[in-house]
């Protein structure tokens, strides 16, 4: 179900949970032009794993709308090392916020998930209907199960209590505020950090794992934020919505784009003794695009602007998992 202008953010009190993260901060930037009052709370001010504290905060602040972008996140190593933390922490955050939003009669809530919710071998491009049709990728199943629970929780409150709670599933994201730690970052910021270091050190080459042929999809976080506001204003239905760019590139092509942005002109060496991972991971964006939303930031342009942000914030860039 969708109706244009169904939920007007103007004049509303809008809570962005996780406002210091890459996604949350992008949503805060995007909301600046919506004429709403943005509510935020740091972890020191509000522990989202504390049920009583969350309920009291909602009762006091009375938000009209909620973007639930707070989560414990990390790469494969972190997921594999701390499975209990990734499952428990994320379950607590989403359960406390969604229940408090219900108790406080919040007008609309959006839960932010992740493309890792889909089966490891889902048909490409991945449609929303692929959810729960096969086994998950084992390396991040703890995080994925928590995110699936969040989708189902939003659906359950819609069905049982008539709440206008929706879910959006972003693809691989990049942009300002990303994690550039080589031990825990995702592929795009990791490549950027490696290329930057190689240029700084005068190295003649950088190495990538595998053959460079796997294909991956990327979306600038400001495009995601725009899509989230679009959905908050225009979408109201049970099923989650994919948010992606609709196209993908090979890892080698991505590395070449990053090298151009950084100004690294050395060789790109493929270490084929290392694993490639999944051959392709592309989400279908047809559902969202049929509503009239399309991404605005081309990948090459987005990589260039992200590198400028990295240079400007090099001392502040988040180099470890939060």
Automatic annotation (TrEMBL):
Recorded hits in SUPFAM superfamilies, A to Z, give: NAD(P)-binding Rossmann-fold domains
* Active site per the UniProt annotation: 143 (proton donor/acceptor)
What EC number(s) does this enzyme carry? 1.1.1.271
Q: What class of enzyme is it?
A: oxidoreductase
* Annotated site (Important for catalytic activity): 114, 116
Q: Where in the numbering of this chain does the NAD-dependent epimerase/dehydratase domain appear?
A: 14-244
For the ligand (NADP(+)), the binding residues are 18-24, 112-115, 147, 170-173, 186
Q: Which CDD domains match?
A: GDP_FS_SDR_e
Family membership: Belongs to the NAD(P)-dependent epimerase/dehydratase family. Fucose synthase subfamily.
**Family annotation (HAMAP family):** GDP_fucose_synth
> What the protein does?
Catalyzes the two-step NADP-dependent conversion of GDP-4-dehydro-6-deoxy-D-mannose to GDP-fucose, involving an epimerase and a reductase reaction.
PANTHER family noted in UniProt: GDP-L-FUCOSE SYNTHASE
Q: What is this protein called?
A: GDP-L-fucose synthase
| Gene name as annotated | fcl
